[in-house]
Specification:
11-stranded mixed β-sheet, 19 strands, about 40% helix, globular, disordered C terminus
């Protein structure tokens, strides 16, 4: 017939052209026969416009099916024509997933994933919106092709013919899939490798293989936020931290409050011209609701209660006195709050997915210890951690035994820095501290016979059990390369401080008896009375635990609880800046491909 294409059955392109031409002829005939001129005047026509619309939709869908076929060819070309040693590239952008992309698309015969029919834009729209929202997780949207995917998607939205462009669809599909793989990996494992940091992070992960290509292939919904949530850290407050970051991003900073040297603090009942600005800061922290007295210069009860809530948010003693630490908290900028949230969301992503049924958590920056069973807190107490130059390390282990009434062998570092200089000045120092000196054969030596400045490090110094013993009445042992453990302390007054960095690296605990009783509760022979006797003995007693809980020494300067309340802490070891710098660093195309 004149006008028809003569085609070769082996020509895929000509076959598609023939089908399209035939579809147009069928549609034209339907339109022709639907005209009123050719219909009997009194005939009843069963909704002819619906029939026309259905026919047009059928042609449109058929045309899109052909477009998807061509797009699949385009995707295949990208994945099959990469030069050795090079990354896949789309729109002059390097793709990061060198393993998952070909595996994912091969499993679906290279068909596009993000588009099923010409009007199926919700999944791609949801994915691009999620890429933009990654900034609230502390990630960089442009690491995941945000501007380019948005540009290509806008072309589809603004030009209805663009969605029938197989090259555009293929490129956008590859970019979105690569972005999804990268985001899921970073949300699950973290973007920064903690092993590359100068601030050590020694907690071992136990995360299973992700199989991201299978997870994406099996997802049939369109809400990418719902899909991504399965990769969030299991910590119950993670999503509240994301919501807090999104909220803070919309706020504006206030001028900082400065207390003059004459006024070291502000106490309830006092008058200060700073109070109106102070209340605005408290409102920004969402601990104060303004009222008719918001402009008053009197430090009233409502304001004092708001200050107490802010002090609790920072882990300070809630006395409502606005001193140095509380003022620093009030003056924390929005950007500092955001950085703290971003850094600690990343740290949560480094933690194991699952812990033992019963475990001990020590947040170094919070100066607290909690004994947990699943997510129930069995015991909570204050701690004292390492000084800034003797930082408590981050790692995990298992508490295997206790030592009641322990002796303390002075570590070489403390012996050199503290004990030897003190003994060189006053030879009675060791006797006053209930310490003895031992030679290399373990024999006791009279300290008065030693030249301490010259020979002090040749000897071992050991402190006997007793009230002055630096380890107190019990120590809780979890063998590790850092020689760090939990222990009691005779310096009980230090627990009243807000910042408690006084130890030489080990963790001093506020409630040693309660902790020992809890760890020994499955050993009924260890009654309360027997524990107290062992803690006040003149000789050490080692007890191996029947149940050996995990212990996790970690470092969080911000987190949220189950109720969504967000808490902040001082970065006592100045570790946050390095993690934040890693989050800000742009991922280079020279990086190795994602692991499976």
């Amino acid at each position: 017939m004149a006008g028809f294409i003569i085609f070769d059955p082996c020509s895929h392109h000509q076959m598609k052209q023939f089908i399209l031409q035939l579809s147009y002829i069928i549609t034209a005939l339907l339109l022709f026969h639907s005209c009123e001129f050719f219909q009997p005047k009194k005939a009843t026509i069963p909704q002819p416009r619906m029939s026309i619309e259905d026919s047009l939709a059928m042609v449109r869908y058929q045309q899109f099916e052909l477009t998807l076929g061509d797009a699949a060819d385009q995707i295949r070309n990208v994945l099959e024509n990469r030069l050795p040693g090079q990354r896949y590239s789309v729109e002059e952008r390097s793709l990061f997933s060198s393993v998952l992309l070909p595996r994912f698309y091969t499993g679906r015969a290279f068909a596009p994933y993000w588009f099923a029919h010409p009007d199926s834009l919700e999944k791609a729209r949801s994915m691009i919106a999620y890429i933009g929202s990654t900034r609230y997780h502390g990630l960089q949207a442009e690491d995941y092709h945000f501007e380019k995917t948005k540009e290509l998607f806008d072309n589809i939205l603004n030009d209805s013919s663009a969605r029938f462009d197989p090259v555009l669809l293929a490129r956008l599909d590859l970019l979105l899939t690569d972005a999804w793989f990268m985001i899921a990996s970073h949300i699950y494992n973290g973007k920064v490798d903690p092993e590359e940091l100068t601030s050590q992070w020694g907690i071992q992960r136990n995360k299973p293989e992700l199989m991201l290509d299978q997870r994406l292939a099996h997802f049939t919904g369109s809400d990418i936020n719902e899909l991504m949530q399965q990769f969030y850290p299991p910590h119950p407050g993670y999503q509240a931290m994301v919501a807090e970051a999104a909220k803070i991003s919309q706020m504006q900073d206030l001028p900082k409050i400065k207390i003059s040297g004459r006024q070291a603090s502000i106490k309830p009942g006092e008058k200060s011209e700073l109070l109106p600005l102070l209340r605005r800061h408290l409102q920004l922290w969402e601990v104060y609701e303004p009222d008719s007295l918001a402009a008053s210069e009197i430090y009233d009860g409502r304001t004092a209660e708001a200050v107490r809530r802010l002090q609790q948010k920072f882990g300070y003693q809630a006395d409502a006195v606005i001193g140095r630490l509380t003022l620093n908290a009030i003056n924390t900028t929005l950007n500092e709050r955001l950085q703290s949230l971003y850094v600690n969301m990343e740290r949560l992503r480094w933690l194991p997915d699952s812990l033992e049924r019963r475990f001990v958590l020590v947040n170094i920056a919070d100066f607290t210890l909690r004994v947990m069973e699943v997510y129930d807190t069995l015991l909570e107490m204050k701690t004292i951690v390492g000084k800034d130059y003797r930082e408590t390390p981050v790692f995990n282990a298992r508490i295997t035994y206790l030592v009641f009434s322990p002796t303390w062998t002075v570590p070489p570092g403390i012996q050199k820095a503290d004990v030897i200089p003190a003994t060189a000045r006053n030879v009675n120092y060791l006797k006053e501290k209930n310490m003895v000196v031992l030679n290399a054969r373990g024999q006791q030596v009279d300290p008065a016979t030693i030249n301490w400045r010259r020979d002090g490090m040749r000897y071992t110094i050991r402190q006997a059990p007793g009230p002055q013993n630096a380890l107190g009445k019990v120590k809780f042992m979890f063998p590790n390369k850092y020689d760090v453990y939990l222990h009691d302390t005779p310096s009980r007054e230090l627990f009243a401080r807000d910042e408690r960095t006084f130890s030489s690296g080990c963790i001093r605990v506020e409630k040693p008896f309660e902790l020992a009783r809890l760890l020994l509760e499955d050993m009924p022979e260890w009654t309360d009375e027997r524990i107290r006797q062992a803690m006040n003995n003149n000789s050490p007693r080692t007890v191996v635990l029947r149940s050996q809980p995990g212990v996790y020494l970690y470092y969080l300067t911000a987190w949220a609880d189950r109720a969504g309340n967000v808490y902040y802490r001082t970065d006592i070891y100045n570790r946050d800046a390095e993690v934040f710098a890693g989050l800000q660093q742009k991922k280079s195309a020279s990086l190795p491909p994602l692991s499976d």
